[in-house]
Amino acid sequence: ELGKRAPRWIRDNEVTMCMKCKEPFNALTRRRHHCRACGHVVCWKCSDYKAHLEYDGNKLNKVCKDCYHVIIGCTDSEEKKRKGILEIESAEVSGNSVICSFLQYMEKSKPWQKAWCVIPKQEALVLYMYGAPQDVKALATIPLLGYTVDDTPKSADLPHSFKLTQSKSVHSFAADNEELKQKWLKVIHLAVKGETPECQNELQGN
């Protein structure tokens, strides 16, 4: 269907990095552009291609590198490189997750920042953190097995916060409300013991 019908445009505020080369956007050097074929948000380098699009009367339109290669019928060998652990698209894991939502996150004494957090079904013991829901690369991953969960906020913490601790590693999270916090804790309490929600259901069934 590429080029035959108008794509759904990903909104600028749904990404913090180019959806192709994964370079972070910033106000000065990286303006956001939309690929007219797939609707992804890309940087100027990755949008420096043009192709005739059927849905727009076969006019030449700005497209990203990937769509350009598909439309003109040539494959890019770079795409065959194996993806690293962080290079899993947020939309891909969020659509098939045990739980996903925005949480506030704090590491050590850095300020709190908003992160899109996901625990995917196929890796229910790992928490992925993204800058925004449509980012194509995670900022960090936390393998949850073996962490200790502290769900009582200290006075300096945000009200609906909890901590994950393992030796010197401490990750603080805060949800927008108590209900969301409890949903996350339910999944995390299982993950730190090496269990998944499916395991738990089977045990209860037996």
UniProtKB/TrEMBL annotation:
Mind listing the GO biological process terms from this record? Answer: cytoskeleton organization; filopodium assembly
**Start and end of every PH domain?**
96-193
Q: Where does it live in the cell?
A: Cytoplasm, Cytoskeleton
From the UniProt record, list the coiled-coil ranges.
none
UniProt xrefs under PROSITE patterns: PH_DOMAIN (PS50003), ZF_BBOX (PS50119), ZF_FYVE (PS50178)
Q: Which GO terms describe its cellular component?
A: cytoplasm; cytoskeleton
Question: Where do the FYVE-type domain residues begin and end?
Answer: 12-68
Q: Which key words tag this protein in UniProt?
A: Cytoplasm, Cytoskeleton, Guanine-nucleotide releasing factor, Metal-binding, Phosphoprotein, Repeat, Zinc, Zinc-finger
A single GO molecular function term of this UniProt record: guanyl-nucleotide exchange factor activity
Q: Which domain of life is it from?
A: Eukaryota
Residue intervals of the B box-type domain: 13-63
Q: Which Pfam families match?
A: FYVE, PH
Where does the protein principally reside?
cytoplasm
Name of the protein in its database record: FGD4 protein
Q: Which gene encodes it?
A: Fgd4_0
